[in-house]
Amino acid sequence: MQAASAAELVNNIEAAVASGALVPGQRLPSVRALAAQVGLSPVTIASALAELRRRGVVLSEPRRATRIGPGPPIGSPYSTMPVPPGARDLSRGNPDPALLPDLNHALHRLELPMRLYGERQALPALLELAREQLHADGVPVEDQCIVSGAMDAIERVLGAHLRPGDRVAVESPGYAALYDLLRAGGLVLEPVAVDDRGMLAGELQAALARGAAAAVITPRGQNPTGAALDAGRALELATVLGDFPDTLLIEDDHLGPVAGCRLHTVLSEATRPRHWALTRSVAKALGPDLRLAVLAGDARTIARVQGRQQRGPGWVSQILQALVLKLWSDPDVEALVLSASATYAQRRERLLACLHREGVPAHGASGLNVWIPVSEEAGVIGALMQHGWVLAPGAPYRLPGVTPGVRVTTATLTEPEAVRLAGDIAEVLAPALVSRSG
């Protein structure tokens, strides 16, 4: 690889990521080695790497080589893990298609709206139904709008308040796509540890004291660990945030009614920050291709989001909004969602019970996933693939200092599969389990 300037080196590395010549996690040569390779000074190389870090393309950690990030914001042929023929894929975090409503049936019964320029961005009936649902869950709705999914909501809220270089408190382990989104926006991740009850209040306080301008909290169905806030932990976090009233708080209730437990929000009337937002997606309950989420928040935040939305895509398709409204208003769909939530909880808890019988520690208080700490991810992933299982490696979900792990999506896992998978995991982890017990 040759380059005549820092800008050209940046372009060349981005092109290599796009083509697949450089893949996520791949190490780059040292600054001096890369300088000799491309014919530029070490100072110029360092400048190029700094720009790639700002763009979220590479990661540099203390005492470790610079490497391509786990999710660089550049399309590439290696965006998902390959699945060998005949293997059981439990790596992607998808809901069970059998537990999603029949969209064809709903579309055939739907009277499609015709939306023209200059009209309202959202259907009033959809906003009113969303308001009722959020109020029932204890969310104090000031204002709200419709966006294209939970990550679109988070990106828009962050863009409305933060600038590159600002620090954001995030769960660790946490959602890989959120990490990638923040890095792509030039934001700095402040890791906050979690347990089965969610983000730890003491660590959040420390992150805010270090200058974090925002915090993103998953109240239930946390990805990858399944953590869920209870009333006590939510109050602890709200108390911490009360000491930092200028913090931007975002709650990501991405699973909504299929999380498998009730919502305990940090957004109390008395202690919520001046600027806040809560997003709830329909992806897991109604289908991932329904790119729609409700965004509630304080009036200024929602106004900023709507203003930027008007100057970009304009609005979320009202055909899509009408479909979601139709589904939400259907008693049969409501019953299906309740049944799906119970089924997901049963499948998750069944795997946890099977792992417990095998002596394998694991986490999964809510949601669609189970998180299993391991000593070394690559070997475990490879060994389980030999048994016919494809699990998600934990590296993209971890920030420095977090124990390695693997994630299992349990949404479609049958009882016989849970028994067999737990046995295979125990077999693969046997040396580590024996060492731990001794």
Give a description of the structure.
The mean pLDDT is 92. The strands form four sheets. Strands 4-11-10-9-8-5-6-7 form an eight-stranded mixed β-sheet, with helices on both faces. A three-stranded antiparallel β-sheet has the order 12-15-14, with helices on one face. It is built from 15 helices and 15 strands. The protein has 438 residues and is of the alpha/beta class. The relative contact order is 0.13.
Properties at a glance:
3-stranded antiparallel sheet, 8-stranded mixed sheet, 438 residues, 15 helices, 15 strands, alpha/beta
Shape: globular
Number of E-type strands: 15
- Described by its quaternary structure, the protein is single chain
Gyration radius from CA atoms, angstroms: 23 Å
Major sheet characteristics: 8 strands, mixed
Quick summary of this structure?
With 438 residues, the protein is an alpha/beta fold.
Structural topology:
Layout: H1 6-19, H2 31-38, H3 42-54, E1 58-59, E2 67-68, E3 88-89, H4 103-108, H5 124-136, E4 143-147, H6 150-161, E5 167-172, H7 176-184, E6 188-195, E7 198-199, H8 201-209, E8 214-217, H9 231-242, E9 248-252, E10 276-281, H10 283-286, E11 293-297, H11 299-310, H12 318-328, H13 331-357, E12 369-373, H14 377-386, E13 389-390, E14 392-393, E15 405-409, H15 415-437
Parallel strand pairs: 3-13, 5-6, 5-8, 8-9, 9-10
Antiparallel strand pairs: 1-2, 4-11, 6-7, 10-11, 12-15, 14-15
Helix pairs in contact: 1-3, 2-3, 6-11, 8-9, 13-15
